[in-house]
Specification:
It is a single chain. By secondary structure, this protein is mainly alpha-helical. It has 5 helices and no strands. Helix 3 packs antiparallel against helix 4.
Length: 142
Amino acid sequence: MMIYQSIIATSAALVGLFINGEWKGLSREVKEFGLGKFSYAMTLIETAIASSIFVVGTIGLIFEVSSLFSNVISVLGLPIIPIVAVIFFHDKMDAIKVIAMVLAIRGFVSYVYQCYLDDKSSKSEYRSSNEVSNNPLLEEVS
């Protein structure tokens, strides 16, 4: 199923590229890339490979655990990526990146707290059901 979605997304992007006329600027973009044509091509290829690995991993998490957990792991990566970009690529940390990081961390903490509350609730329900089943007044009379 994911292959079909990828084919449709790629087709839509290519159609938009040609309709908009941006394909004419691709050669200029390659020439203006500071590290050369080979590095430009390698950057595109590595981005495609990393994106494919991410999609396969996300689908694996959906099948093995749940779609909610898959989304939580994806959101957890949001604050990590800008930090890595600042450290390794000397990217600027602006307000939008900080806000996105804070919201992603808040979402992850909310998920963990909700899991804690659900676990606590299920344990208390389990204990109360055991107390009811151990009550001698509720035993069957034969």
